Each structure stands twice: as structure tokens, then as C-alpha cells.
Amino acid sequence: MDRSAEHGRQIDSLAAAPPDSPFAAYGLPGFGGLPPTPAPPEPRPILELEDEEYEDELDALSDWVDDFLMRVYGAEVTTGAPWCDQWQEHPDVVAWLHALWLAYQQHKDAEAGLSGLFVWHRDFLTHAMATVRAAGGPLSACMTDPDRPAHRLLPGPRPSNRTAATEDSEEGGGHEETGEPGRADG
Q1: Which of 90, 84, 77 is nearest to 153 (CA)?
Q2: Is 121 within 8 Å of 69 (Cβ atoms)?
Q3: d(CA 87, CA 151)
Q4: Average pLDDT for consecutive 10-residue bins of the chain (186 residues)?
Q5: Distance separating alpha carbons of residues 105 and 28, to the nearest angstrom
Q6: Which of 56, 71, 81 is nearest to 144 (CA)?
Q7: How far apart (Å, rounded) are the C-alpha atoms in residues 93 and 100?
Q8: What crossing angle do the helices spanning 51-64 and 91-108 adopt, rounded to 10°?
Q9: What SS3 class is residue 88?
Q10: CA-CA distance, 162 to 150, in Å (whole number)?
Q11: pLDDT value, residue 58
Q12: Of 140, 135, 137, 73, which is closest to residue 104 (Cα–Cα)?
């Protein structure tokens, strides 16, 4: 037992970072002189990207969605599970699918462990696809029958009254202040 404990202490001391060494300045392996590996860039939501960076990310996402996601998980296009061949024109769908793709990349990595892809299926795929392809979801005005392709962007909600009043007053819209905070007559 004593011998095992001693071996454990030796292994721990060998695995510990070496003390400052006169060789550190030369960047020799094992002497604490190698610069740290730079961390990969943090992924950014696709809707925060602009111009060429956005287009490149959308191209890569489109390849994954068309060649993998919809081929494997697309199921049948119906009124209960609509789809749109022009999904790239639906910003909310692009955001959902991009987040799903980032999660896929993380969970298929070896560091995610053997259950990584199960977690992706359970926690990400099912929820994202149910939201994107919901009967009343963002693609509900698009294709519900594969033999009749359709694409239509539904109008979103208008700005709140407060935002509209602020925009109108900035543009000289004629709203007068009532003296009460947050209210404008119009």
C-alpha cells in the first residue's frame, strides 16, 4: 500500500507543471516555454454577421441543411410539417437552423463523449424542427405539399406604440407629449 501511494505521488509530481526553467525562453517542449495554443474563435449567431461573412456562413449552413438535415430528418412535407425551398429568406428559420448546426458540431465532437449525439437529438433537434416546421410556425404560409412549391414571408408584428411614437416624433410626426412619462397623444 505504501509503495502504491508513493507511486501515485511520483506520478502526480511528474504530471505537474515544471518549475520555471532557464530553457523556457527557447520554447522547448517539456520546459514550459511553448506558447499556449490560441483558442478557436467564438461562434457568433448568424444574424449578427454581415456581408461576405454572413454569405459564407449561410452557404455552409445551406450545405448542411440540404445535404444532411433535411435528407435525414426532413420527413414528409404536409400542412402539419411545412417546409420552404427558400428557407434562407426566413431570418427566424435561418437563426434556428444555424443554432441547431452549431449544437450539432459541438455534440458530434469526441469531447462530447459517446452520448453527445443523443443529447443533440433530445435537446436540440426535436425542439428546433418542431418549432421551425410547426403548422403555425414561420414556414406555415409556404410549401405544405411537395407537388406545389410555395414561398411566402408572413408580415411580422408592428413596432409597439411606444416605439412608433418615438420614431414619429423623431421624424416630426406631430405627436405631442401629455406631460406623463411614456404617453403621447396622437
Answers
A1: 90
A2: no
A3: 8
A4: 73 61 55 61 86 95 96 90 94 96 95 93 95 93 84 83 77 48 42
A5: 34
A6: 81
A7: 10
A8: 70
A9: helix
A10: 36
A11: 96
A12: 73
Q: What share of the chain is helix, strand, coil (3-state, %, to 5)?
A: 50, 5, 45
If you search the block for the grid coordinates 411566402, which residue do you land on? 152
Burial of 138: CB neighbours in 10 Å, binned 0-12, 13-18, 19+: buried
3 strand-pairing partners:
none
For residue 142, the 8-state DSSP code is S
Tell me which residue of 35, 38, 33 sits closest to 20, measured CA to CA.
33
Dist CA 116 CA 104 (whole Å): 9
Contacts of 76 (CB under 8 A, 6+ apart): 146
- For the chain, the residue count is 186
- Cell of residue 30, nine digits: 517539456
The C-alpha cell at 18 is 515544471
Q: What is the DSSP letter of 83?
A: B
pTM: 0.64
Which residues partner with 185 through β-bridges? 176
* b/e burial code for range 147-175 (CB count within 10 A of at least 16 → b): eeeeeeeeeeeeeeeeeebeeeeeeeeeb
Return all residues near 142 (Cβ < 8 A) that are at least 6 apart: 82, 83, 84, 86, 150, 151, 152
